[in-house]
Write a structure and sequence with these properties.
Elements: E1 6-12, E2 26-35, E3 41-51, H1 60-84, H2 97-114, H3 120-129, H4 131-137
Antiparallel strand pairs: 1-2, 2-3
């Protein structure tokens, strides 16, 4: 049986005066124990952070939710742009070309998500094989 993830969170505003960070509301630390799918221990992680939210506005459970939300964005957008679209190896560099290409990649991801795609890479492969279905996604 797979063990449940273990997370311990600690936060304090007592250290705010020692942190050279504007609008520091509190510092925090999250300790995680990560297991493989078979239940074997993979690693222990310790993450420190700073937030502008005070302790009454961000409890330990709220901070964990915010941190998980950050990784959701990382995994649902940035990883797809980095891996599926291989953005890091793009050679578009002149003028606003890189920004335009990033916008087009974001648009493609958004259209596919709105269409219900959960696996962007597989959906892109499917779109390459079916031009009619792809054009229907954008209303043509």
């Amino acid at each position: 049986m797979k063990p449940s993830p273990v997370r311990r969170a600690w936060g304090s505003s007592d250290l705010n005066e020692y942190v050279d960070f504007p609008h520091c509301g509190q510092v925090f630390e999250v300790k995680r124990t990560v297991h493989k799918l078979d239940g074997k221990l993979l690693r222990h992680e310790v993450v420190q952070g700073i937030t502008s939210l005070s302790a009454d506005k961000a409890s330990a459970s709220q901070r964990l939710k915010i941190i998980r939300g950050h990784w959701s964005i990382e995994n649902r957008l940035h990883w797809i742009r980095d891996v599926t679209f291989d953005e890091d190896r793009s050679q578009v560099r002149k003028g606003a070309g890189a920004q335009v290409m990033a916008s087009l990649r974001n648009l493609a991801i958004s259209v596919l998500r709105l269409a219900g795609a959960t696996n962007i890479a597989a959906t892109l492969r499917h779109c390459c094989r079916s031009v009619r279905k792809t054009l229907r996604l954008i209303g043509l």
